[in-house]
Structures are given as C-alpha cells and as structure tokens.
Amino acid sequence: MRTLASGITYANEMRLGSTEVHPEERMIDCRVSLLDEPPEKAHLLVEMSDVTRRFRISRENALIIQHGAGRQMIRKLAHEIKNPLGGLRGAAQLLERQLDSDELKEYTSVIISEADRLASLVDTLLGPGGPLKKQAVNVHELLEYVVRLIEPGQERIRIRRDYDPSLPMFYLDRDQIVQAFLNLLQNAIMALDGHGEITLRTRAIMNFTIGNIRHAAVASIEIEDDGPGIPPDLRDTIFYPLVTSRSDGTGLGLPAAQELISRHGGLIEFQSRPGRTVFLVRIPLTEAEATVVG
C-alpha cells in the first residue's frame, strides 16, 4: 500500500524462522516497486531473494573480527596481571617462612592460594600454546565422551542425539576439541537451570565458506537447548571474554571454545530465541581443498 500511495520502491530484509524443511533461520530481501502503468491499472512488482549466505558471511566476518580483538585485548591484560602475581606469591612465601604463628601463616596461605587461582585464570585467558596435536578422531565419540563427563547429577536434563553416520573421521587436537565441546555443553546446561532438553546434531556440509575461505566440506556440530535464550543485550558480545548473564559465571567458556575451534580453522556461530538456542560449530573436514574467496 505504501508503494501504491507514494510510487516509491520499498525494500526490507525479513528474518524467517526455522521450519522442518529449513532448520536454520533465513534472511530474505524483499523489494516492492510500482510497474510503469497508468494509475488506474497500477501493478506491483514484488521481488524476494534469499540473502542468507551473504548475511551469514557478513556475520561470520564480524565474529572473526570480534574474536581477534577480544583475544588481543585479553592477552595483553593477562600478561599485565600475571607478572605481578608471581612477585606477590613469592613475597607471601618468604613472609610465611619468617612467621612462627600458625594463625598468621593461615593468612599467607590465603594469599598464595588466591595468587594460584588468579594465575590459573590468567592461563585460561591466554589459551593453549604450542602446535596442535592432531590425530584422526570420530567426532561422535568425542561428543559421547563429553556427555559422560557431564551426565552425573543432570538426571532432569534429556540428551537427544541426531548424528549423521556418514560423517568421516578427520584430524583434530582431541583434547582441545573435547574442551570446546565441554564448554558449550556446560553453557547449555546452565541455560536450562536443571531441567530441559539438549540436542546434539551433526552434519556434513559441502562447499561451505568460513570467513573468506571456501572449504570443499565442513563438519557441522550443533548443540541446541530449549532454554530461555540468550538475552538480546548480550548477543553482540557473547564471545567477548568476561561477558556473562550469570552472577556466578566467569564469561570465559564461550570465548575459550571459540579460540579452540578457530585454531582448527573453524568458527562457532549461534542462533537464539526463547525456547531454542543452538551453537553451531563449523570445522573444515580437509584443509587441502580450501580456497580463498575473492
């Protein structure tokens, strides 16, 4: 009606929710224009095109930039914290040797213990070092291993599997990928607050672009929960360190997982609305056939 009244072309992007046919959200570009007809015979031309791929590539690039900026920021901060921590711990140890009172030594023990705790936190912020120790792994075996780690004490949470049996084995650093999956699964459990359903889904996707690199095939590992969803005010910063909606959270789980997956040339994305939040882990199945998109 707006176009009919004004004659001005109207354009807008619409978000279509997931369906049984299209499980992922889609972005549709809709344009409405007036055909060159007499006013009494006016016709509208409605053009709709799927721009999900363009939207996704733009979003992926934003996530990669965000991850890089957050990683640089947190590493600089971690180094600034770690240096004085060593001096603080050493001074507390020297002081403890000079004290005769066990009661006073309890205070220096607290200082040493807290210094060690902060040092461990800093090591988490700095992330893993050294080259990847890749080996051929079955990603379903890794997921099942992680499930066994978290299942005790989670009797009210249902774990549903939707695995693609055709997904081949590929080369990963097992310990790092286990940690990434563990972080994502624990995040889903916390979102459910003790009861709900988590779906583990795997697929192989052909000719998939991560950032500006096109891969012949990637593994898609999805961790979905039916919790309340990510608060809208956190969605743009969810992968930044120390960002969390929980009072007892550290805000390190998601950025650490993103770092571990990025070391394998992959990326973690997410979709969220009340009742459905899914983190999508994309990892190249082979690096030999990757090409740069111009």
Model description:
It is built from six helices and eleven strands. Helices cover 40% and strands 28% of the residues. It folds into three domains: 49 residues, Complement Module, domain 1 (Ribbon); 72 residues; 159 residues, Histidine kinase-like ATPase, C-terminal domain (Heat Shock Protein 90, 2-Layer Sandwich), CATH 3.30.565. The two termini are 40 Å apart. 19% of the residues are buried. Strand 9 and strand 10 form a beta hairpin. The strands form three sheets. Strands 5, 7, 8, 9, 10 and 11 form a six-stranded mixed β-sheet that branches. Strands 1-2-3 form a three-stranded antiparallel β-sheet. The protein is of the alpha+beta class and 294 residues long. The longest helix is centred in the first third of the chain and has 47 residues. Helix 4 crosses helix 5 and helix 5 packs antiparallel against helix 6.
**Secondary-structure class:** alpha+beta
Count of strand segments: 11
String of helices and strands? HEEEHHEHEEHEEHEEE
Contiguous helical run count = 6
Topology of helices and strands:
Blueprint: H1 2-6, E1 10-16, E2 26-34, E3 44-50, H2 52-98, H3 102-126, E4 134-137, H4 139-150, E5 157-162, E6 170-173, H5 174-192, E7 196-210, E8 213-225, H6 253-262, E9 267-273, E10 276-284, E11 291-292
Parallel strand pairs: 5-7
Antiparallel strand pairs: 1-2, 2-3, 4-6, 7-8, 8-10, 8-11, 9-10
